[in-house]
Amino acid sequence: MPEALSQPLASDVTQSQTRDARYASPVLTALRSATKTRHAILDRSMPLSDPEATWAHYVAHLQMLAAWLEPLEQWLSAFNDGPQGKQAPALIRYTDIIRADLGETYMPADKLCHNAAQHAQPDDAAYRWGVCYVIEGSQLGGEFLYKRLSTRLAPHPLKYLQCKQAGRWPEFLQAMATEVISPGQINSACEGAVNAFDALLLQLQARENIL
Ligand code: HEM
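A: This is the predicted complex of the input protein with protoporphyrin IX containing FE.
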């Protein structure tokens, strides 16, 4: 577990759409409770959390996400059930969007500290629902960050921060609620989500040790 988890909590993010009671489910409640502390750390510590963020922070933020996402997307694309099945929204490769957004600035991913895919049982779709909850949820802060940065970082379009598809998150939550039901499945989903958050937190910690 990253050392940062033992530090005091940051304030919670403002959660608007995600707190809509229509999307409540036992698995979502469990995922929120299992990952709330980890999200608060990312919310205050990612490069774009800096109120004076510059273009260099934008690049560092996206590169870190790409390094984290690349092995996860590769692993997820090998399945066709659970969150990769027909009932869930189709996989989006967010690394492609990051690559296109950064253009020539994009650099291949840094050495990985940890990959959440390594901990999964091959046929455990519930674990993948948890991992995908984190990947899809990571899009939700984009709108907030775009509003804060678009003028300061103009004329760059900050396309990655605007790539959230309307309706995708509720669709994902509804599909997850119908597929992840038993206590065992909910535990697996929480394990996947915690491992996915920890993989990014370790990247962050490695970066901070370098700086
Ligand atoms: C500067 C960094 C970040 C900020 C400012 C931020 C902000 C936010 C905000 C405002 C929401 C709520 C959106 C809404 O309700 O409409 C949210 C939700 C969420 N974010 Fe972040 N976020 C950040 C980074 C991340 C990262 C890197 C991840 C994943 C690794 C992540 C995962 C999630 C998840 C899973 C949710 C859904 C929580 C729920 O169930 O309600 N966030 N974030």
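The chain is about 55% helix and 0% strand. The helical segments are 26-45, 55-76, 94-102, 125-137, 142-149, 168-179, 183-210.
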